[in-house]
Write a structure and sequence with these properties.
- The protein is elongated.
- The protein is an alpha/beta fold.
- It contains 6 helices and 19 strands.
- Helix 1 runs parallel beside helix 2 and helix 1 runs parallel beside helix 6.
- The structure holds flavin-adenine dinucleotide.
- Flavin-adenine dinucleotide binds next to helix 1, strand 2, strand 9 and helix 6.
- Flavin-adenine dinucleotide (FAD) binds next to helix 1, strand 2, strand 9 and helix 6.
Amino acid sequence: AFDVLVVGGGPAGSAAAIYAARKGIRTGVLAERFGGQVMDTLGIENFISVKATEGPKLAMALEEHVKEYGVDIMNLQRASALVPVDGGIEVKLENGAVVKSKTVVLATGARWRNMNVPGEAEFRTKGVAYCPHCDGPLFRGKRVAVIGGGNSGVEAAIDLAGIVAHVTLLEFDSQLRADAVLQKKLRSLPNVDIIVSAQTTEVTGTDKVNGLKYKDRVSGEEKRIELEGIFVQIGLVPNTDWLKGTVNLSPRGEIEVDAKGQTSLPGVFAAGDCTTVPYKQIIIAMGEGSKASLSAFDHLIRTSAA
Ligand code: FAD
């Protein structure tokens, strides 16, 4: 059995594994795909102290750093259930195997919800973006659209309006769903247009995005907007389906954690994009992973099971 079993091999899971292993305790990492979302990222310019890097390069560095320690890496393995048992926790894998540990750090991350329209996948990183904090500055002086009129869409539009030349916010529903105070701020900005009842139907481009098509859901008319960037803000889905009924989840499916990364289940901690901690970023996930692991160590030295 492990002392700390980390589920997830992204920035949060890697940090958790390194912090646990450095305590000299038996540490395992279980990951469906080591590297996590970072593997899908091209440029990273906000990983503090590294001016610019690329996702796959950072993912490789994460794996190398984890491998510096005696961590048991179980890659390409998907966890399907978490079961509290006497003296610890069992994690069941999709392949039928069971891994036992005294404590667990959950770091299964999240995924951006896609529009699933033609051109979206093709122009990903060529104008189609998901993270305004990450990619906003790449569109300085250009025209962009934000898809989604919830809090994250409206926040993104306000944020981007200060950087880019023009923002068009498109909402599927007949009204925005964001908090009134955010809507008021958005409407006060001179370089923002808001279009409601708009169903995005296609991302167009040549080598890069040059526009989008949408259907006016009232008139049924198809319309086109010329622009250089599209920020999709229709939800971030945490990878926590397999945890339903075991640890407390928020209405959005995020694992509820306290300031130490403790979940509702003793001995089970969580970190990164799969949790209720706000602002989903690499550097935040790493900090949270380290914290959850230190909390797991603290739990071990305080329980008789240690
Ligand atoms: P993830 O990176 O999502 O890792 C989750 C891990 O858990 C993976 O290893 C996954 O395979 C594994 N996993 C999931 N489910 C299971 C399961 N059931 N069993 C076993 N393993 C499982 N952030 C920045 O700070 N700067 C940027 O420039 C930036 N750009 C981005 C660009 C894109 C295109 C995307 C998608 C994200 C970007 N982000 C950026 C956000 C950043 O990647 C995330 O905040 C960060 O990766 C979160 O780390 P994490 O470890 O919590 O989760």
